[in-house]
Amino acid sequence: MASPPPDASLAGTRPWPAPVRALAHPNFRFYFFGQAISILGSWIQQVALAWLVYRLTGSAALLGLTTFAALVPQLVVGPFAGAWIDRHDKRRVLIAVQGILGLQALVLAVLTAMDAIGPTLIIAMSVALGVLNAFDTPLRQSLINSFVGSKADLPNALALNAMLFNSGRFIGPPVAGLLLALSSEAVCFALNGVSFLALMAGVAATRPAPTARASGSVGRVFREGLEYAWSNWSVRMLIFALAMVNLTASSYAVLLPIFAKDVFGGDAQTLGWLWGAAGAGAFAATLFMAVRRSVPGLVKVIIVGGAGLSALAVLAFAWNREVPLAMLAMAGVGFGISLCNVGVNVLLQSRAPDHLRGRVVSFFSSTRYGADAIGGLLAGLLAAQVGARATMLVEGVVLVLFFLWALRLIPRLRSEVAASLPVH
Fold first, then answer.
1. Is residue 352 situated within a structural domain?
2. What top-level branch of life does the organism fall under (predicted)?
């Protein structure tokens, strides 16, 4: 199927710098700046929710369960959501989903302000958020191609989109820590609810080229996407690498409140700085990815930078007892995880046929967040038995073993990726 035509508004315009070349497309700019505000709000809520859970219960297991509840719907619902998305107008559905997400955050804010929130209700709200995100994530990701309208600029657009997410990780947690010190979790949730209006307005302002919709039942459309993913060895291996890195390294998010309060003797602001350090590393990784041109070269980046660096940084974080060194290790963890996630996303979307894009993105997001969910749950349960430090050490060792095994896959993966990329 042919790619959408180039953005006509670019004709005769001065080229943008290579690291931000996708911003030359007006549709992508509308989306980009609306997304920036929305992501900042989402990270503020995530930190505030983790702090609320640990403040109310002091339970490492409940931290893991809450993370699991928020993420596992993407593993279960996500693949079918992708099939459903490919049959509908993605732009209109995204605007509607953003409105519902905003409403969910505002309800959470009201319940928290009224002291009507407890573990059961937090888990229920987390499940609702997870179901909504199972539609939201593949919608946003699969629309980027139509906002850019150019296969050549798609990798840069995906890297810039990831940069937004990671800049939110860098800025949002310290802001959340400050807001928690000055106000309450309810204020953080309310700010997130309002932030969704920005992305709704940005997407409403776009005028992307029409894209083909899949036909047939959701079941048939799903099976078509699953057959595509399963029949490609390189796609399977990329998704497996994505799963391993997020199953192990990404579960740090569940354990950070424990490290902040019990290991380092800090408070919500300490949690914000640790989480922000991971975000800073992830942001640096997306800057690195934005300037890259070689798509097949991302295979080595994913295995060596993603799995290898993440493993070493997780082990370093588990061993040290000083906050500054812990922040440095968290930056390494964030850098490595982001290299893997962005790299796999770019490779999958660069190769995916346009009519399968929603399903391919849903397989990516369900694996990425589903592995987060399972890893977070296991980390919380294990930390309740052996402690947070020992849990991080176990995760680091498992990831080192995967990295050593995956090194031998690099030549074949690189060759198959290069052979399957479309010719521009």
1. yes
2. Bacteria
